[in-house]
Amino acid sequence: MKTSLAENVWQTLCWFDIFGQAASLEEVHRFLFWQRANPKEIEQVLKKDRRIGSSFGFYFLRGKNASVVKRCGYQFQAGKLWRRVARHLFVLRLVPFLRFVAVGNTLAMGWPERNSDIDLLVVAPKNRLFTARFFLTFWAQIFRMRRHGKKISGRFCLSFFLADNALDLEKLKIGPYDPYLAFWAATLVPIRGDSAEFFAANTWIQKVFPNLKLPTTARRIHKKSFGEKILSGRLGDLLEKLLRKWQLQRAGQKRKNTSKTAVVISDEVLKFHETDQRRHLLQEWQNRINGKSAAKQ
Predict the structure, then answer these.
(1) Domain tally for the chain?
(2) pLDDT value at position 297?
(3) Structural domain contains residue 166
(4) Residues 127 and 220 occupy one common structural domain
(5) Strands (DSSP E) found in the chain
(6) Are residues 40 and 183 in the same domain?
């Protein structure tokens, strides 16, 4: 998109505003839409644009001062949830075939609500995806950390699994522009494994956020765990086949009353979300950019 720096800064703040959030200079720089610019250039624009207000190092659409107070409150809740993540990292070590696990959504973005869960993105080998999902779900249930039913707050949401040969999320875009998918991927926080392969397959994110620096060089070689060694041969192939059949049958029920983009079920992608608000968020963003809408305080 060929637009001025001032307009791209405005678009970035409008993006944060659809979530009711103020943004720091560092965040505006990191998630600046469509073009590169250094922090000083961005800061000059922020100070000159009369449509933009500032307080305590945060920037927001003028009149949305309350978003700064909300942002500070979110930091307390985020701290509680990250401590919970840290306490349960040992569970990931019990699960075979996990290649990469990251926290996403509101916690990774920095603004979890009091009742927020902890969304995970999980990557496993293409021929062990269903095995990894089974064992992760099993141990998460044993240690009472899995979200299910009405047990949501502070629980782990195991709703997004990728095979390691299907890491490119661009195919899941809802159209030519899908700012939320790019933002969601850009804010992922790795908690296990090496993120290099994942981000190397998703360099398209940098077309949306050119200032973003993605780790694309692997730092270590994966070593097989005891469970992986046992389940790497024919026994593992048989188990994977049985788990695949069982899980796909159960997953098929989730397609009912959901959009095609909310639930994606294949041998390489398992994405279970009750709703997909990307089109709504895109419209809200465009409304703000054009001055037609205002975020709720």
Answers:
(1) 2
(2) 38
(3) yes
(4) yes
(5) 23-24, 52-55, 58-61, 100-104, 118-124, 156-163, 189-193, 263-265, 269-272
(6) no
